[in-house]
Every structure is written in structure tokens, then in C-alpha cells.
Amino acid sequence: MDNPHDLSPFPGLDEVIGDIYETVFEEDGLPRLLERLCAATRSPSAILCRRGADGRGTEHFWGIDPAYDAPMAAYMHQNLLAHRMHLVQVDDPTCDTDLVRREEWRGLALYEEVWKPAGLHQCLGILFDRDRGGVASLAFFRPGEDGSHGAQSRRIAAVLSPHLRRAMKLQGRLAGSRLRSGLCEDALDRLALPLLVVDLSRAGRIVHANRAAETELRVSAHLTVSWGRLAAQSAPDRDRMTALYGALRHGIGGSTALGVDGAEPTWMIASPLPENRACTVGLPQRGQLALIALRNGTGPSAADRALLQSLFDLSPAEAELALALGGGQTLAQASSSRRVSLNTSRTQLKAVFAKTGVARQADLAGLLARLDVLRR
User: Fold this and answer.
1) φ and ψ at 258, to 5 degrees?
2) Are residues 306 and 291 in the same domain?
3) Is residue 135 part of a domain?
4) In terms of domains, do 81 and 102 share one?
């Protein structure tokens, strides 16, 4: 029964177009795609060819005896049809006889040893992409007794061509994203520092945890994984995580200490992860992502005063203030503990920001945490 919602020029073609885009998300979907395209054009076999500006390329076959795979690849350079497809307009179907004279095929090993015995005679070709000197084409074949492709097959090929082009480009982008994702995960796994990427829009669901983070979460006295989400084990620590997540949702990085009443607290140093940055490293563009580093110990203030003075030319008072803020104190608390006025601390903080190159206290805490990791 015809689909009443099928608005394509030919009944059933909408389903074929849907299949074209579905195969983008399948790692081995190309054979199924070629099968569907062959059925749409009433062709027993097809060859999809991609060639770069240097003439090198790859070919994918459907409906051709696998015994011809090796000679087909060996004689690919003799494929006159694929070589000359760049002469036609994109999305404009053409017959092989429009590009290659019959006598040009005779004597070529590709034709005599492969195409002829395989029954690849009547050919309908279409150039579906031309980009940066490279071309991508699709050729449908029929045996001689079936006759040439008619006007309907040409029109169907012309309708499918732009969809095939978009699908192939989308597939390339997805493949690049998968590669970047794999490289990113491998790089993170090699780090000794526990790192997690969480989705704040899904209550802190863990998107990725490197090996060091997985190990840390298995033995942590303060953190756990609940229903795929990063969670604190005690009520006070849950409040601290909630406050940190709230700041992250507003684009503000920060840090907090969990288990501060214990001998060894766990520090969470977090920063928002913008969508464009997530995409660059192959992470999913969804929700609100944040990058979280974990470290056990006395916190970012473990970076000692001498190191700060040496690296950033801070005065003793400026280094002391930086360590107090990095340890989780507010500016008022740091002023009180150091017995200086709030205005004096503000002046010193401006100097600390100028010398360290950061603009917020949260960024200063993250800087101190990174220095402590390096120092260890």
C-alpha cells in the first residue's frame, strides 16, 4: 500500500532517502545503502567511487561477485568512467557512452577481465560531489540484455544525489568526531590526575571519567557514583557540591573541599566546558558540561609561599593572601586571619591578579591546584 505521506516524485522514494541518512550513523551501513539505491534504480549492481585531487581513490561495490574484488582494485586506475566523471555537472545523471566510447574499453584488463564477465555493461553514472579537487560518483550497472537505464531511473538518481552528498559529508564529520573523541579519551586516560566531565543539566551525570578518576571513585571516602551521577556521600558535602554546580551553571568555575572534618579532604576543582570546546575534543554537544579535577590532600593552598613568590614575583603578603583564598577562605576571612584591613586585601588581590594573569578568585584557586599537582 502506498504511503499517503510520501511526497517524493516516485512512490517509496522517501523511504530510500530516509535510509540514506540512517546509514550515516552505522559504521558498516554502506553496503545496505548501495543495495537500496540499486533497488530504486532497478540495477543489479553499483560502484561508489571517491577520488582525490591526486587521482587516488577508493571504490565500494554492491551486487558484484566478490571474486572480482581483487582485480577490480588492481585495475581501478583503468576506470575511465570514474576518471571522466569530473567532466559532468554535479547531480546530472549520464550514461557511460556519453563519456567513454565502446572502443576505448576494448583491450583494457578492467573491462575484459572484470566488467565484461561480471555483466557490467549498461551504466548510469552520477557525480554527487565535487570538493577541493576531489570527486565522488556512483555508477549503476545492468547486464546488456536488460537494456539501458530509462528516464525514470535518471530522474530517481538525480533526486537521490544531493541527499547522498549531504549524507557522505555528515558521515565524514561524524567519523572525525569519533576519532577526536577516541584521541581525547586516550589522552585523558594517560593523565595521573583524576578528571571527569559531567552534564550539569542532568544532575551531574558522568559523561566521561578517565582511569585515574575511576580508580579514585572506587576508593573515595567522600564521593560515589549514584545512578550514573557524581554524588557526595554526606549531607554537608552534598550542599557544597550543589553550590559548586550552581556556580558552574552560571559559567563560573570554582573549587570546594569535601570531608573537611577528616584527616584528608577531597578537593573538587571545576570549570565550565563550553559546547564549542566539547565538540573540538569529540565530546557530545549537549546540556551544560563541566570539567572536574579531583585531588586528595590539604587543598590548593598546599602550593607553598616560596613557589608562588618565585614563579609570579609575589610579595610575601600577596602570596599569603593567594594561599588563603586558594584554601577556600573568603576575602573577608583572609583579611581577618591575616589581621589586615579589607581594603588592604583588595589592593593585594588586584596585584595578585595582575601578576598571575587571572581575573577571578575561582581561577586563582584552579591555578594553585595545578601548581600543586606540578610541584608533587
Assistant:
1) -105, 140
2) no
3) yes
4) yes
